[in-house]
Amino acid sequence: RSFGTLPLASRCAAGVCSTGSSTTSGRMVVAGGFDFSEEVALASCEAIGVSGLLSGQPVVEACPSLQRPRACPGLAASAQAVLAVGGGSSMFTAAEAFSSVEVLPFGAQQWLA
Fold this sequence. Notes:
The chain has about 110 residues and is mostly beta strands. The protein has one helix at about 50-55; strands at about 15-20, 25-30, 35, 40, 45-50, 60, 75, 80-85, 100-105.
């Protein structure tokens, strides 16, 4: 199946990770990325329920935006939070590379730096 009309930011180079205790009850979190049409890194973040994708009725939730736009961030989930690691200010050679980490505790209203 392909869902070409999901309400997500149009981007490449986003970080993606899975949350939840199993793949059918969890969510995919998508954060950051790069918008080639505008040539800018993005801070947007969304969560997609896996069970909705599997049933053909995907639900996309807006999440708090990253504090810093990040192209190519590494995303990981722990039992308590989602972490956005590294990334950069652009996809091009003049980009600033980030060594920082942002943390979004589950249920929080903003990412913590």
